[in-house]
Design brief:
By secondary structure, the chain is of the alpha+beta class. The chain is built from eleven helices and 20 strands. The strands form four sheets. The protein has an eight-stranded mixed β-sheet with strand order 6-7-5-15-16-17-14-18. The longest helix has 25 residues.
Amino acid sequence: MAVEAKKPLLILGGGLIGLSIAHELAQEGRKVEVLSRRRSEAAGFVAAGMLAPHAEGLKNTLLELGQLSLKRIPTWVKKIEANSGMNCGLRQCGIVVPFLSATERDTYPTASFGEKLNRIQLEKEIPGIAPNWNSGLLFKEDGQIDNRRQLMRALEKACVELGVHFQEGIEVIKLLKNNQEFQGVQIKNAEGIIQDLISQEAILCSGAWSKKILQELPIFPIKGQMLSIQGPKDTLKRIIFGPGTYLVPREDGLIVVGATSEKNAGFTEGLTPFGQKELQQGINNLLPSASQWPHMERWWGFRPCTPDEMPIIGKSSLKGLWLATGHYRNGVLFASITAELLTKCIQRSSLNETEHQLLLAFNLNRFKSTGSILKNS
């Protein structure tokens, strides 16, 4: 029994969700090994980093998950910063959602959580906003974290400091199982060598690529292109969350502009003229003056989406294999709560009623129709 306990828990995926869970488990004293194909392609490196359960207009259980995570994020970040010695770039800067009319504003799903703005107030919050926006909602509790430049690096460092082991350039070929029990993974490393890694427990958090490892997962990629522009420092203090486009200002004046939503692109890599034009039009429609600011970077990524656009968190049909994927647009927001919930499950810590209900709501079983979806091939 003691020998089995020494085998590391495997994290299949080195993105934000995987690193967050690895960090949480390592703090609990667990031996953890992260297997990653190419961490730089993870959504955590390409997302804008908005913490926006209210600005996104989330509803029902998804809103509840987002609000719980938002409350936990400051403490979560402090732990990462303490373990890494690095700053994560967390800012409760507030987010403004502009609307063409007061009626449109007042019927927004999360309107009751925001401060109503008329045109004059909107201009005060967002100087230079395009004249067609007549009202808005200010969500002061929402904010951002600089995931691309700070959070991901801090998490990696924090994990290393806590003894997490990393294997990069690893392709998981298949899961090893016996009588519906997880027993490890067969991998191919960067040198092309195929080998088996034996373990009794793992977490599948490979984002948009999760289905390639476990076919029963209804996960598919939605490509997003982004760019950044350099504005004067403090010119834009709030995030602008417009329809189809958002502008996320960092402390140094860099503004992240996102994001296209390309449902039929699959895993096609690269930028497209159409996508870049869409982003530029979004800037013009929201903040015309920003159209003249210099462009800094352009990039793309793949969001992991499910049919109901909600994450999959909890047990799989294999004993010992846990799931944390399908976070779609809100991986940064949901990272802390996902890590906490799964760590409690794996460590067999007690769950309160809210946590129990959330795990039921986001379990893979919700996609069962005739009972066949969970049957392993």
